Amino acid sequence: MKKITVSLLLAALICGSLFLSSCDKGGSETSETLQSDFAETETIEKDGPKNDMTSFTFQSLTTSMKMELIEDSLYITSLKTESGVEKVSSAVPFALPQTYCTYKDAENSVSDGDKDFKWCYVGYEEYTDDDEGKGYIFTFKDADMEVFYRLFVVERPLMAGPFEFFAYIDNKTEGTLLCTPNDYFTVSVSGNGDPVTMTFDKESGVAEGWNVRGTYFDGSGIYETTLLKGIEDTAYVSTHQNFNAGGFIPMIYVDWGDSGVYYVLEWSNGTLTARGTGEGGALLSVCLDDGSFYTNLPEGDSLYMPSVYLGAYDGDVDTGSNIYKHWFLRYKAPDNMFEDENEPLTQQDMQLGISVAQYGIQQIKWDYGWWSDEIVTGMWRTNEGLLEVHNSAYLDIMQSVGASTLAEFVAKAKEAGVNVTTYVLLKDTELDREGVPTSVGEFGRPEWFSNICITGVGDSADLGNEECVEFYKDYLYNFFKETGVNTWRSDFEPICRESDQENRHFAFGNDVQYWCTVGFGELVDHLIENIDGFRYESCSSGGSMKDPFTMTKASVINCDDSADFMSLHMTFYDSSYCIHPAQLQLPCNALTYTPGSPYYAGIGDYLYGFRCTLTGGVMLSNWNGTTEEDISYWPYYVNEVYNKIMKPLIRHGDLYHILPRPDGIHWDGLQYIDADSENVIKGLVMLWKPTDTEGPEKTVYLRGLEADTMYKLTFEDRPEQNCEVLGSELMTNGLTVIIEGESGSEMIWISEAE
């Protein structure tokens, strides 16, 4: 998460004596510094909140918004697309936290019943941050208590993209509050005709609608709902670690065909609701968990209300998606994803050792189990949270290059031109030793671990426990610093959804995931800030953490956990509406596209499947060991095509879903285009024909071209179809492609004709 600097502090938040009556607005000079897990602030001496404005405007390159203060309530009264299409027709009050209770006893065990906050508007302050963001902080105070609500509304005017809303509840009373915020974001939007929502399942295990080695999950991956009056569409996000579980990516598109809006929750757990209001309208809202979220807010503390993004667009969902994803990569993703032209790094399971740089592979991965030789059940090994090499296979690999320690191995790997990624699990090692995460023995800290035991070996760490987080900051820092490993790859549950412990959260409370998310963010941020070149990437049951909060920390995240090229191809298609393709990794077993292997998915030839894995972040593997056939494709497709030509398109270009979702029967296709690129190659069309059901011809309509530019289209496999066509012709009448035979694939390079 990017650092936030508050330029003007709210004096009235600190000194309740400034308020002469329950809803008086006032202020005086004060100097104070507020600290938060999610905000860094400066000490600034400034007057308190101002009250000389009731109308506030916000602007990005493609969207404008107006908020107005009406009788102590804020309203979003206008949200316009770049062309001026208004998406707000009837404003509703912006939701503020609703319910709380106080405790009668010192043990915080007996409450005095639910009460409603009585928010009175105090004033506004101007706001800036170090990521080109600026806007306003709106302050409210409860009429009966020294409790404040600070709502931050942020624009980034230098780029196309959404507006950001986040907030804090500040408890300045003498005692603990039990807060139930309920909805904390609302806006009413409208358009011509009934709006259609698009929501996206995480598909963390296997793509919906696909069968992988006998495992089939029903569904379509993408869900469209026409909103009539009273009918609602809900996206629920979580980090459930069950196979193919975890709910939906927390993003909803509300589309009217010619324009639309999108809104996104930057958190690991919550609910987005779009409810039809009739006459083309929809009421959009956001809450934590399912709306019944509750947690304690101790005296003097602040409760962070996670960011919500709101944007509008002209055109279709792909247009809105591209605007949003470019904005996210610039302002929200880890800095390396925007600044390092090598990202996303190509990666391989460590099957060929450290010499793979010659093929364009930039990282090798130490997978599950490098810490132990002892198998407990199935493939699961003892001491899952240990950061020492005890697996004989990995020890042999180290010794094969003359290394006796992991640090020596990493040094040799870097000298050869590759980095090393290691699995690190936040689990109970169950070892009676000092200096390791453990619940047993003299140094055991059982209160650091939840009741979740995913593999039957050790319980997951509870990052709601602040001492546990501080331990892991040192434990992981020392490991990465001493070994030189630059990437932490997580699996299973670094963010617990459940815990029987009580710390910042309740035991078995619905605030467990909230506080474990806070702790996880603190841990990853500590490593990023203190270790040069540090990267985090998320496997985590193959995409069950597929949410914007994770994507602010992770360079890449698994599309799914199938290792099947067709399943990954499908989940990439779905998730790439919400997550930048540079951050979507496709970890694939080459045997699934190798005809004749027991894992073969049954579609196309080797190249057909291999090309499916090149659309986002590349991770190569072969469960029977790398073959000569595998290697034969790498010098060209990995080193020359992907690293040098495709990466700039993936990072900087627009992605269009130019054909329907892959289904293993009908043609499917994707297009990357960066018409303004200084590179010779401006774009790429990738087509797959799994069967001959639709015949040998398909007309595809290209997107994002300059209408009056003549383009040269170069076919990778079928040069006889090379042609030069005007951009307007390609977008209006399309390009007809011929692929003979039962199945096949094609890559068509787009450049400007000479």
- List low-confidence stretches: 1-22, 24-45
Number of DSSP-assigned strands: 44
Q: What spatial order of strands do you see in the largest sheet?
A: 10-11-12-13-26-22-21-16-19
**SSE class:** alpha+beta
Percent of residues in beta strands: 25-35%
Radius of gyration: 27 Å
Largest sheet: 9 strands, antiparallel
Oligomer: single chain
* Average pLDDT, all residues: 92
Task: Write down the overall geometry.
Answer: globular
Number of helices: 13
Helix content: 10-25%
Distance between the termini: 44 Å
Give a written overview of the molecule.
The two termini are 44 Å apart. The strands form eleven sheets. This protein has a nine-stranded antiparallel sheet. An eight-stranded parallel sheet has the order 33-32-31-28-27-36-35-34. It has a six-stranded antiparallel sheet with strand order 37-38-39-44-41-42. 19% of the residues lie in helices and 31% in strands. It is built from 13 helices and 44 strands. A hairpin with a 4-residue loop joins strand 5 and strand 6 (64-70). With 754 residues, the chain is an alpha+beta fold. The longest helix is centred in the last third of the chain and has 25 residues, at 628-652.
